[in-house]
Each structure stands twice: as structure tokens, then as C-alpha cells.
Specification:
This protein has 211 residues and is of the alpha/beta class. It is built from five helices and seven strands; from the N terminus they run βαββαβαβααββ. A seven-stranded mixed beta sheet has the order 3-2-1-4-5-7-6, with helices on both faces. Helix 1 crosses helix 5 and helix 3 runs parallel beside helix 4.
């Protein structure tokens, strides 16, 4: 008998997050909570602003009421500004670093109920100093580098062609989403805190496994 899997996807209104939701819904065994700032069947859309603790808490209560005794896994997918203007940098770090940290903290009780306790923070190769993409998307790159460290620390403590990518991007959102779902679905404790891409190679997806 197939066991249903419950997913919470943040940043689900566009881009990779939206494509992840679409692809998860293709399986009748997936129950999906799609969280977006401004919000059928196995899809539940919940209002959540990841920069607002009260909003996160309300979303957590809503998800818990629907799930009952079941657990869930989290896919954190955010976006941000590209310039280094102080207000842009601050807003992007709050959304891409503080936001996933707050969401994880709020949803830990639901994650602990699941048979596979998975948190995946969606990062980017733009966060890599070694790959060196130059000065583009500065605030976004800085925030995602911090997100990588957050994911690593959480693991240690046991805790594409989107609007931003532009038309010159070589990877379609649905391809990235399919790979992310496959990587998260097959993740084990050996993947904890690793920086891997949508094909499971060293790259742009941070996965946290709670065991």
C-alpha cells in the first residue's frame, strides 16, 4: 500500500516553487501545502509571509489542523533583490535567511511526526564563491550563501528560467523542480547539510535531514 507524503512548499506562487507544487500534484500520494505571501484536491494554499512570525505561526496552526497526526516535510523557496542598496540587502536577508529559520522552527513539531524528516532549503550556484558569477545579483547571492550556512548549522544542531534567472537561463523551471523533488524524495541522513544541485551533484540545493 502506498503511503501518502505531505509537503509544505514556501514561495509557491511563481518560478521554481510554483513548478514544484505543480509536479507534486501529479502524484495522488502527495498532499501539498503551498505557502505564498498573497494567496483543490490535494493542494492546500495557506497564507504565509516568511518575514512575519505571527503569519508563520498562523500557517503552522492551519497546516496542523488539516494534518492531524500526520507529519510533513518542508521545501523553502524564496527570492530577493539583486542590488547592494542597504534596504534591498536587509530585506533579502530577512526573507532568505531569517524566513527559512523561522519557518523551520515553527514547523519542527509537524516534521517530527513524519516518517522521513526532511527540510530542503533551495539555494543557488550564485551563492558559490568558487564558481564566481561576478557582481551580479549581489544581495540575493549573499543571502543564499548565508542560507547555506544556516542549513549546515541546523543539520549539525539536529534542527532556472524564473523572473530572476531571465530568458538566457539554460534550465527550465519544470526541469529544476522535477530534480529537486527527486533529490528530496530519495534523501538520506548521508545528505544532511550538503550543498547539492537538482541532479544530486555538488551544486545549488541544501538539504537538511532530521533523524
Amino acid at each position: 500500500m502506498s503511503v501518502s507524503r505531505t509537503w509544505l512548499v514556501t514561495g509557491a506562487s511563481r518560478g521554481i516553487g510554483f513548478n514544484i507544487v505543480q509536479q507534486l500534484l501529479r502524484s495522488p500520494h502527495n498532499v501539498v501545502f503551498a505557502a505564498c505571501r498573497n494567496p483543490a484536491s490535494a493542494l492546500y494554499v495557506v497564507q504565509m509571509d516568511v518575514t512575519d512570525e505571527a503569519s508563520i505561526s498562523r500557517a503552522k496552526d492551519e497546516v496542523e489542523n488539516i494534518l492531524g497526526h500526520r507529519g510533513c516535510r518542508i521545501l523553502n523557496q524564496q527570492r530577493g533583490y539583486t542590488t547592494l542598496a542597504p534596504k534591498d540587502l536587509s530585506a533579502t536577508i530577512i526573507a532568505n535567511v531569517a524566513g527559512p529559520a523561522l519557518v523551520t522552527r515553527a514547523f519542527i513539531p509537524l516534521i517530527e511526526k513524519g516518517s522521513r524528516k526532511v527540510i530542503a532549503n533551495i539555494s543557488t550556484a550564485l551563492a558559490s564563491i568558487g564558481i564566481d558569477y561576478g557582481g551580479q545579483h549581489a544581495s540575493y547571492s549573499i543571502s543564499k550563501a548565508a542560507l547555506n550556512m544556516l542549513t549546515y548549522k541546523q543539520a549539525k544542531e539536529r534542527w532556472v528560467k524564473t523572473d530572476m534567472g531571465g530568458t538566457n537561463a539554460t534550465l527550465e523551471p519544470h526541469e529544476s523542480a522535477a530534480g529537486i523533488i527527486q533529490v528530496v524524495s530519495s534523501a538520506t541522513a548521508a545528505h544532511a547539510g550538503r550543498f547539492i544541485d537538482y541532479k544530486g551533484r555538488n551544486g545549488a540545493l541544501c538539504i537538511e535531514i532530521l533523524v
